[in-house]
Structures are given as C-alpha cells and as structure tokens.
Amino acid sequence: MGILSDLNIKPGVIYGDDVLKVFQYAQEKQFAIPAINVTSSSTVVAALEAAKDKKSPIVLQCSQGGAAYFAGKGLPDSSEKREASVAGAVAAAHYIRAVAPHYGIPVILHTDHCAKKLLPWLDGMFEADEAEFKLTGTPLYSSHMIDLSEEEVKFNIETTAKYLKRAAPMKQWLEMEIGITGGEEDGVNNEDVDNNSLYTQPEDILEIYNTLAPISPYFSIAAGFGNVHGVYKPGNVKLHPELLGKHQKFVQEKISAKSSKPVFFVFHGGSGSTKEEFKQAISFGVVKVNLDTDMQWGYLIGVRDYVTKNIEYLKTQVGNPEGADKPNKKKYDPRVWVREGEKTMKARVEEALDDFAAAGQA
Ligand SMILES: [Zn+2]
C-alpha cells in the first residue's frame, strides 16, 4: 500500500504524470504533502530524513532568496538576470536529484513564490529546465510557482497561462496564487466574508480553471481563504477553509465535472494554523501545504540549545571546565552543532507529516 506500490512510482524526484497521480492520490486518500523550504544541503537532509522515517512523500521547495543562498550570499544577483538565484536553484536541483533516491520516498521538487519583479529568475530556471529536458526527457524541477496575486486578476491569469504554455511540453507543474494571502491583516473585519479581498471569489477560481485547463492539467491554485504568511497572534485573522469546498462545488457545477474536487488547492501561510483547520482544508482538496516559518524555528532550536548547553566548551579552541589543556574540537565541528539543528527541524517536519496525514503514504 502507498504511492510507490499503488502507483508504480520510483523513489527520488518525480515529474509530470507521476506528480499528477500523486496529487490525485492525495485528494482521494485525504492527505496533503508538506512543502518544506530548503536553503542548504543541511535543511534538505533534515526534510528528507523525516520523510524517509515517516514513509511519506515530500515537497522540497526553494524560494528565490533560498536559491540565491544555495549558490552563496557573496555572489552578485542582478534584478535583470538573477544570476545567483538561477545558479543556486540549478545547483539545489542537481544535489536533491542525486541524493533523493537514496531516501526511498517520492520527492516533488518545486520553487516557491515568484512575483512579477522576480520573473527573470523563473525565465532563467525555465531555460535550465528546457536544456535538461532535451538531454534527459525531464526538466530539473517537477514544478514551479508563479505569484502574481498582487497584480490585476486579468494580468495574473493571462501571464500564468503564458508560463503554463511553456511548462506544458515538459509536463511541468505550475502553481499560481490568487487573492491576497496577507500578513498585515491584524484586526481585519471578516464578517462580510464574500466581499473581503482576503478571500478569493469562486468566479476567479472558475476563470483560472477555464483558462489553464485547456493548456495542461498540471496546475494548482493557492487561493486566499484568510491565510497569512508568517506567525501572528491567534484570532487576528479568521480562516475559512470551507470556502475551498464552495469553490470546488462551483467549478464542478459549471464544467459538469465528474470529480467533486476538480481543483488542486495549495495552502499558503500554514504556519500557526490549527490541526483542525488543516484537516478541513485537506478535505476540500488541498494537496500541498507550505511550511517555512515553523521550519526555520525548528532548525534554530537544536543549534540554540546546543550552544547554550555547551557554551563553556565553545569559547576557546582549547580549555574547558574539565581542564585548561582539554581540546574542544569535538564540540565545535560544524557536523556536530549543525546536526543538532537538523534533528530538531526533522522533528518539526515529522509533526507536519502526521498533521496532514502524509505519514505512511509513500
Ligand atoms: Zn502565497
């Protein structure tokens, strides 16, 4: 039982129809795959190890800043070309593709939010994907995200369609965003839900579906249902996952779809949400949940506690409470203290795999 045996999918990074099959399987079995932001081989390892131990599929994603970090913060990254962001994304993909099969689970390799001003980054990655596709028959990335949610709806949908046309021959997935996934909505009045810009309207979802579906089936929508990026005080913004159910019903009726969940939804701004809210969103067709903020916190905990506990061993290379001539090399080796961050981040990924019922699904 599980993705590898039921869908006949090989471990490692998956592409095209395999990604589609996995997302369909997730809707059918009512689970979502956590999308973990990775910025280094160390954060990749933490996420992969969690998925391996939980026998779960996983999405690894690089943001533009995370991709640039992969290449090195010392490299120039012009706004016209985003050289470092492209190089880092390519490097991350090669690294993850090389190690992922050894973890024995399916991995979806994705890039996170790409706003209008970052489109040169997306263009650069598409070039690398197309070159790889020519050589091997798969792109580098399973999937990319384009985020024009801050632009006019018409521009958002038309531009997303243009990029989906470019991705389609490679059977590459494209995630898009509509509505405002806010971050500053403290104290916003949500009583009139349907008229609030925080909440995506069903007509918009239908228009996206009708524009994108004829191009390719490989797309998903991050819709706003009161979600926020980052962690805020509970109660400030009210989540309405049931809106996703309304969208599904609306699209199903308008296109006379057989499936009660014709749309693949993505949950952004998931850090800080309750388990019940996740469960509800998943029941309405959410197949991927982004988690970034909580992972950064998870990684810090191990490093912080290690340094705090061992501080008397970390002040000089030689000399500690056990003696003035005792060496501290075993304490300050990065493999020791960085590993502590991996362990606590891994624990946080495992919690997410359980919360979204992805554990055991590989
Ligand atoms: Zn978003």
Biggest beta-sheet profile: 9 strands, parallel
CATH fold assignment: TIM Barrel
Cofactors, ions, other ligands: zinc ion
The helix content, as a percent range, equals 40-55%
Number of strands: 11
CATH superfamily: Aldolase class I
Based on Cα principal axes, name the global outline.
globular
Residue windows where pLDDT falls under 50 for at least 5 positions: 182-195
Strand order, sheet with most strands: 1-4-3-2-9-8-7-6-5
Rounded mean pLDDT score: 93
Give, in order, the helices and strands. Answer: HEHEHEHHEHEHEHEHEHEHEEHH
- Which radius of gyration do the C-alpha atoms yield? 21 Å
Structural class: alpha/beta
Give the termini distance in whole angstroms.
8 Å
- For this structure, what is the CATH class? Alpha Beta
